[in-house]
Amino acid sequence: MPAIPRIDPIGAAVLCLLLGAAAIPAFARGANSNSTKPHASKVARRLPTMPAPTALDAVPAAERGDTSTGVSGRLRIRLLPPGSAPAGVYAVPGGVGGQPFAFIGVVPFDAKHGASIDGYHVGFWPAELHSVRSEAYDNPIGFVEVTAENADVSVSEHFKLGDFVTHDGAPFPKYIVLREPLLDKLELVLSDLEMHGVSTQHVEVLSGFRTPSHNFALGDASGRARESRHQYGDAIDMIIDADGDGRMDDLNGDGRVDVADVRVIESAVDRVERAHPELAGGLGLYREMGPSGPFAHIDVRGTRARWGTAGSMTYASGASLSASYDRAGSAETSHCQAEGASAVLCQGFRHTH
Fold first, then answer.
1. 43, 100, 214, 278: which has the fewest C-beta neighbours closer than 10 Å?
2. Is residue 2 part of a domain?
3. Count of CB atoms within 10 A of residue 202's CB?
4. Would you call the peptide bond into 60 cis, given omega within 30 degrees of 0 as the criterion?
5. What pLDDT was estimated at residue 309?
6. From residue 270, how far is each of 103, 251, 276 by CA, in Å?
7. What is the SS3 assignment for 196?
8. Residue 142, C-beta contacts closer than 8 angstroms, at least 6 positions apart
């Protein structure tokens, strides 16, 4: 497999500051495995030339091993500002704290033409078609190109870039939207679970980023699926499968796998959100819905939202989901609660994650 391009971090930062994006090809040329592909060079030619102050800020932090690895300390990448570098993954020699670390060049949203980006069909985001109710539903700022060569690049301790691609059957390259706060929250949740005796050595992502086109195909004709956070790069559906049997593990140790195991994840999410309110978001608890068994939806939409599958969704305390999260100003059903701009989700909670 072609090597991921490597850069001198301090030199890269200085070049980015002084020369803007035009400097990036100078140190990436010849090493970037994507540079020989027509689709990659076509994207690179479209990128606007702009300074990249984030690169200057991020690289020294990476050298110190502090904020570049997130609040969790487990991030393995930083996303560069859209258009500040050609699409690709740029490894930092020696990594950070003994772990691999890389920068990723993000393709600006305006590189998308019609329903596609470089021939990869994505469809249209809601804000492209009509006004949206909040900034949280604005168009994404850009895309990460995922290729067969970089799909195995670690983006955090437990996750790889390829974990987040849409399962649409399309060949590589694919384009995804990805947000660092999601990775940070996931790693904080997994760290919390580890502290409570849960093995998290393998996490299976059932669904990461979903293109609007694919997302709508999964939903109903009402259009509620068009609100899904999966298309904004800040949501995943996941199971913890440390034993490798392809199903959610028995997280609570009661000898069976059911929705009670997903509630173990819920408790960790609640603890993380209390400690880090800036990572507030949605949590969906799902019963048996396929061979993977029950699973959890986690996102960082910015407002707290909770929902579950239909039926008698109860917690260990015996309180219903809505009673457990009864807050003024929220829209509720017997299994759904959401605040602020997310309150509309409870009108069709089974289709809005």
1. 278
2. no
3. 13
4. no
5. 59
6. 30, 16, 10
7. coil
8. 82, 83, 106, 107, 108, 109, 111, 177
> What is residue 7's predicted lDDT score, i.e. its pLDDT?
52
- Asked if residues 161 and 143 have their Cβ atoms less than 8 Å apart, the reply is no
Neighbours of 317 (CB within 10 A): 8
342 pLDDT above the threshold of 90? no
Separation between Cα atoms, residue 77 and residue 184, nearest integer Å: 11
The answer to whether residue 81 is domain-embedded is no
For residues 141-149, give the mean pLDDT. Answer: 98
Residue type, 296: A
Residues counted in the chain: 353
Cα 191 from chain centre: 17
Structural domain contains residue 91: no
Domain that holds residue 295: 179-351
**CA angle, 102 as apex, 96 and 103 as ends, to 5°?**
130
Helical H segments across the chain, by residue range? 9-19, 24-28, 38-46, 53-64, 126-129, 180-195, 212-218, 259-275, 321-324
d(Cα 136, Cα 309) in Å, to the nearest integer? Answer: 24
Residue 198 lies in a domain: yes
What pLDDT, in 10s, does the model give residues 296-339? 999 999 999 999 853 333 332 222 232 222 222 233 323 444 44
Cβ-contact 236, 205 below 8 angstroms: yes
The residue with tokens 């970037």 is 32
